[in-house]
Every structure is written in structure tokens, then in C-alpha cells.
Amino acid sequence: NYTQESIKSSIGTRVVLWEEAVQIIKRNFIFGVGQGDIKMELHNQAKKKGYSQIVEKNLNIHNQFLETFVGLGIGGFILLVLMLFGPILRLSGKFLELFIYFIIIVTVNLVFESMFNRLAGVFFFAFFYCLFVLFMNHVPKKENNIP
Description:
There is one protein chain. This protein is mainly α. The chain has one domain (4-136). It is built from 6 helices and no strands. It starts with 9 loop residues before the first helix and ends in an 11-residue tail after the last helix.
């Protein structure tokens, strides 16, 4: 368990936020707390433990996977994971390798930031995700032209 002193660093703060998010998930595993109540639940949890800086700085969970799980429960978490990794399993084409790199970059970002809480994050993901998914199956195949 972290102390008030440990949340002075960015990493320490994230670890505390993630620990508190896991506690909320344990109490609301199936349905979550609802998208509109994530911060309120996190701040209430932080107040109980004496982490006043989390409330003062109005911090979010800083992990999209945990944020989704807290808000939407196990169903929302599974849908997020399927949205990210599902196309890799069923799509093929010239850009599949590039799509995999894109998903790796996004996944790393989602672990350390609640990317979908910001319009810029949503736009970035939606734009490139749609490009990859729409065009991945429509890449023309090379034809063997034998003279």
C-alpha cells in the first residue's frame, strides 16, 4: 500500500489510482458504477484512504482498461478488448502488420492514460482504426499475368 508521500511522483500516483480502481471493480464487477460516476467513486475511495491530492487535482484513473471496467463492468471491459484485438484475428491483407503495430501503440497508451476521455484520443483512435479496418479487406490482390 502506498502512502501520501508516494503520490508525489507520477508513477506513484498512477499506482495509487490503479489500486483504488481495482477496489471499486471488486465491488462493482458485473455492471460497473456507470460512466458518469467513475470520478465520484474514485474520489470517494481516495478520500477514505486519505489521498486528498487525487481529489484536489481531479484525477482520473489514468488507465483506459481500468476506467472502462470501473464504468461499465466486465461486459464493457470485454468489449474494449474485443474492439482492439478482434480485427487482428479475423482480418488479413497487406496492412495487417501495420494495424498490429497501431494496436500495440494504442494499447500501451491505454495502459498509462485514459485516452478515450479526451476528444483528441477518441478522434485519433477512431480515424486510424476505421482506415485500417475499412481498407484492410479491400486491398487488391496481385494477379499473376502469364503472357
